[in-house]
């Protein structure tokens, strides 16, 4: 049931006669009159509605619109045959496609035509407008495929309001710019969905303006929402005129008010428009409600129900005592200055200005041209003052100081960063800060004093070595000689001159059993294999040593043919094994190995058959490292693919591992598997020497950046411990190879540090490093101190060679 729209009126209709359809039977007039005779009162009501117009709309809302079944039951008599006939006629009238125009005409004044189709003079109750709302607003046609198509009519809303002040429907496009509608004849839509036509522009608008006078309020502006000319009221135009003339737009504003003399009057007393004094009591007029509340409180006080003063109880006393125990103080309660702390330091004060800062200083304080130029060329930090004295005739001619802000800022920094209280030094025992170390007396034996000095070299001693038997010390120096000394007495036992120009860089005894006595020396590009004379060796030892050195010649005779180049020529060898000249053989040199580069370091394998040499000055990285076989007189250059120049090398005592140190890294190679096993990152800028522990689990790395790095090969690639106790470069480091937990390192500062380094096989226990002794004695010559270190094979003896012979 659709409610009736407020304000909608009924219309008077005339009933016309309608033709009956064929096949449905004709409806006789007399039968209709007889059927509707009982509705005379309703006819009178209808006539009254036609004459008087619209009744109260509230009555219509209560009645509503009745269905077709209710209409038949209320207005048609109870005759069964007549009732069925009339009901069928009404249903056919409503639903028949042939009478669609009748159903559509049931709204407004056309309703009478539909009623006239039933009877010419029948009295019928007219339909309300709510019944017209049920009529569909569409027509049904057939599309090209034969399917039904619904065509809706245009919306035509009807407004029955008589309000003449209603706002003109505006454009409902919102914030969309009007430029989006430039290609369309309209500029938007109103609230009913109708298109808003574009206003006239251009020639049409000019012709229209020429034909009429300019209306009042015309501004020439366009409303961006509607596209029509924007009209302003007279008040708005007047406000715009005042704004363009910089006048006050408000009414009653006086830009030039009269001056109020606040300090005028008798005695020139101060008369202010506002006062902070409290309101006087004579102005207070209490309300009746407040008066009643006050009287209630007065009555309660008199009766004793409210006590203005209550005697403190025991709980109040306990609370006050607790507050006194933990009393708090208001730091801003008093403004009295407190005395400074006894350790207070006053803020630094600026010195008083002198003659230089005067605007008219004496002539002797004014700089000349040379001093001015020198001051300008100096950096700001090197100047003795931030300004130059200048002479001005008057104070008013003094210009602004360009460094004023900077100078005040630095002064604020001085005040902010200046100490305020003297702090006493902490009385801490320096010994308590050191870690708890064992007593060095408990870690003996270790070297403590210098017992033997071997003198004889002309220049620096670059390398020393102790033979496996522990009786002799071999040394080589810048004078090109190799000398053998008695380890107990320091007496020279044997000497050989290898070169007049080249220095002996390395001397090393061949390890192994004591039945041989072979000393190897590197001088320039040649490696010499020496057999000391002067009855240092027994005939049996000398014979075995000669046989060991001569065994390689037989292997060289049966060696495979050398490789050849593409031209068929024999490829030159990078090394050559040969017998030395007869004079050298007579002095004890039995074999020579010639390289094309200068060998700086030499390291033996523990079996004594293999040894390696490192030549940092080699032109090619592949030829910098060479591994030699003494029993075969064979030299090999392993392709290790180093990233940097090789510095030194050593063999693992138990595994087929080969350690090679470059400037910054230590690389470990497996010679049997021919692959890189591990790479260590000491973090040093330049590695000078390495030493491997007898168990092969720890490595010491010395560097030129004054550090000694301890690597535990089981932990990782980074150092386990970094030791910094030298002031200059550390050139040599060595473990004790005889089983004692000792190590030593020498530096260019001329000192030798002896440390206790205990290494155990348990992986859960870290190595213990304890400094024992600092040995001095070598003089620093040419910025060089200790150059070589060697431990005795069994005793806690340490030999060193350095810059002073």
Automatic annotation (TrEMBL):
Q: Compositionally biased, Acidic residues: which spans?
A: 36-84
Cite the record's Basic and acidic residues compositional bias ranges.
Answer: 306-320
Which residues lie in Pro residues bias regions?
348-365
rRNA processing found in the keyword field = yes
**What are the start and end residues of each WD repeat?**
454-495
Q: Which GO terms describe its cellular component?
A: nucleoplasm; PeBoW complex; preribosome, large subunit precursor
GO molecular function term, any single one: ribonucleoprotein complex binding
Domain BOP1 N-terminal, residue spans: 181-447
Role summary: Component of the NOP7 complex, which is required for maturation of the 25S and 5.8S ribosomal RNAs and formation of the 60S ribosome.
The protein's name is Ribosome biogenesis protein ERB1
Organism name: Friedmanniomyces endolithicus
């Amino acid at each position: 049931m659709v409610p009736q729209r407020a304000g909608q009126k009924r219309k008077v209709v005339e009933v016309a006669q309608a033709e009956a359809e064929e096949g449905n039977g004709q409806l006789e007039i007399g039968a209709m009159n007889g059927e509707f005779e009982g509705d005379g009162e309703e006819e009178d009501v209808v006539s009254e509605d036609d004459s008087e117009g619209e009744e109260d709309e509230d009555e219509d809302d209560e009645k509503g619109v009745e269905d077709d079944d209710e209409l038949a039951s209320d207005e048609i008599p109870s005759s069964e045959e007549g009732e069925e006939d009339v009901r069928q006629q009404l249903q056919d009238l409503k639903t028949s496609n042939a009478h669609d125009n009748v159903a559509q005409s049931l709204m407004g004044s056309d309703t009478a035509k539909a009623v006239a189709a039933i009877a010419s003079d029948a009295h019928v109750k007219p339909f309300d407008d709510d019944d017209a709302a049920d009529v569909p607003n569409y027509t049904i046609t057939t599309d090209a495929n034969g399917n039904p198509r619904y065509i809706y009519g245009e919306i035509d809303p009807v407004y029955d309001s008589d309000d003449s002040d209603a706002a003109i429907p505006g454009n409902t496009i919102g914030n969309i710019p009007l430029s989006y509608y430039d290609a369309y004849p309209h500029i938007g839509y109103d609230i009913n969905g109708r298109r808003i036509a574009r206003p006239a522009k251009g020639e049409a608008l000019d012709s229209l303006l020429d034909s009429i006078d300019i209306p009042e309020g015309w501004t020439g502006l366009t409303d961006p929402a509607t596209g029509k000319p924007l009209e302003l009221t007279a008040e708005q135009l007047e406000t715009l005129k005042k704004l363009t003339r910089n006048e006050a737009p408000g009414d009653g504003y006086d830009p030039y008010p009269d001056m109020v003399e606040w300090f005028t009057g008798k005695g020139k007393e101060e008369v202010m428009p506002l006062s902070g004094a409290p309101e006087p009591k004579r102005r207070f007029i209490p309300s009746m409600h407040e008066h009643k509340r006050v009287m209630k409180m007065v009555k309660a006080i008199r009766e004793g129900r409210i006590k203005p003063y209550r005697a403190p109880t025991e709980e109040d006393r306990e609370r006050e005592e607790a507050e006194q125990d933990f009393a708090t103080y208001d730091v801003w309660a008093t403004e009295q200055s407190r005395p400074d702390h006894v350790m207070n330091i006053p803020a630094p004060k600026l010195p008083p200005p002198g003659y230089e800062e005067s605007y008219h200083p004496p002539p002797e304080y004014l700089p000349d041209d040379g001093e001015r130029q020198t001051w300008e060329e100096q950096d700001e930090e090197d100047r003795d003052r931030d300004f130059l004295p200048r002479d001005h005739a008057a104070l008013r001619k003094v210009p602004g100081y360009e460094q004023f802000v900077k100078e005040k800022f630095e002064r604020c920094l001085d005040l902010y960063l200046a100490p305020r209280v003297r702090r006493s030094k902490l009385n801490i025992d320096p010994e308590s800060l050191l870690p708890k170390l064992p007593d060095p007396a408990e870690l003996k034996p270790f070297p403590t004093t210098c017992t033997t000095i071997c003198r004889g070299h002309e220049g620096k001693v670059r390398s020393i070595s102790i033979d496996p038997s522990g009786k002799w010390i071999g040394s080589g120096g810048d004078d090109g000689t190799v000398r053998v000394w008695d380890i107990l007495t320091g007496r020279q036992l044997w000497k050989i001159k290898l070169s007049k120009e080249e220095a002996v860089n390395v001397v090393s005894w061949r390890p192994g059993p004591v039945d041989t006595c072979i000393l190897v020396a590197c001088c320039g590009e040649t490696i010499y294999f020496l057999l000391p004379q002067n009855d240092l060796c027994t005939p049996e030892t000398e014979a075995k040593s000669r046989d060991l050195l001569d065994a390689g010649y037989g292997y060289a005779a049966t060696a495979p043919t050398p490789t050849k180049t593409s031209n068929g020529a024999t490829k030159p060898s990078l090394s050559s094994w040969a017998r030395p000249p007869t004079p050298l053989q007579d002095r004890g040199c039995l074999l020579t190995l010639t390289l094309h580069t200068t060998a700086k370091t030499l390291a033996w394998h523990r079996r004594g058959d293999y040894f390696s040499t490192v030549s940092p000055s080699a032109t090619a990285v592949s030829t910098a490292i060479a591994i030699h076989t003494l029993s075969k007189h064979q030299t090999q250059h392993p392709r290790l693919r180093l990233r940097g120049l090789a510095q030194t090398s050593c063999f693992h005592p138990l595994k087929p591992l080969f350690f090679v140190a470059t400037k910054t890294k230590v690389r470990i190679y497996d010679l049997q598997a021919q692959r890189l096993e591990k790479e260590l990152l000491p973090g040093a800028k330049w590695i000078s020497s390495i030493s491997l522990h007898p168990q092969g689990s720890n490595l010491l790395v010395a560097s030129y950046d004054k550090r000694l790095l301890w690597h535990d090969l089981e932990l990782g690639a980074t150092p386990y411990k970094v030791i910094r106790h030298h002031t200059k470069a550390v050139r040599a480091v060595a473990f004790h190879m005889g089983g004692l937990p000792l190590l030593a390192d020498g530096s260019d500062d001329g000192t030798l540090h002896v440390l206790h380094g205990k290494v155990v096989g348990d992986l859960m226990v870290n190595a213990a490093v304890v400094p024992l002794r600092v040995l001095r004695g070598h003089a620093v010559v040419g910025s060089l101190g200790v150059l070589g270190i060697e431990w005795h094979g069994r005793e806690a003896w340490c030999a060193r060679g350095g810059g002073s012979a």
